[in-house]
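Pair request: fold both.
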Amino acid sequence: MRSLLWSAVVLGLALAPLQPAVADDDIGGVSCLSGSLHLRYTPGLTFTEKTIRVRGSGDLDSCQSARHPRITRGVVRVRATVTGKCPGPIDPASAKVTISWNDGTRTTITESAFNREGKTLHVEGDVAAGVFKGGVARADGRATGNFIAAAAACLTGGFTRSSITVDRFSVGS
């Protein structure tokens, strides 16, 4: 009888549908509807192409995540090395963006690429570590400030600071 019972259990397990495995690209995700970023360039950008260190900080607000509902905002830190000149192009050689979320988790983004047209910019990067690992981060924003003042800075020692308004940030697959 016991043998018959175990046979039924084994057969039941064998016929039971398997739960789907969590796919690598099923990372949850987050979406933020506003933010800001303040960047510093050392040495400043001039009309001669050179390697420049970029450091920055900012914030993300109005964030939502179905898988991480406590996330509502984040603090952003940027460290990058770029090759560029005024008025561009600027090509990232290496970049690391760390977001410390208000729920205590972190996201580290590397392998960034960006595109700038006028004051509008779009950035994409791979989430290499932390919450949302394996996802792709995307941000759309616009540079604030005056192009005439920026051009004057390029002529007189270098453009050393910029500010960006983040219109949308998200991480998805």
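--- second member of the pair ---
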Amino acid sequence: MTSPPNLDWIRAAPEDAEGPGPWIEIAFGEGDDAESPVYIRETSDPANVVTTNRRKWDAFVLGVQAGEFDHFVEGIEDAENSAP
């Protein structure tokens, strides 16, 4: 999919991250309602853009914060079990 020109892409990387990544980048389209577009791409393949909407994006972010996707990350149980 082709994204609109002049989007403000935000790189989702730690502040101290260096180098080209690859990182995920997010851009919010026009509008601020639940159906407004959200664009997602990887820095290593910026022409490949995935589109969703703000309602789904917000649900995804809340799910990540709640740990709903932790089972997709290898070793996360080990890290959680060794935490003080």
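Observation on the second member. The longest strand covers residues 45-53.
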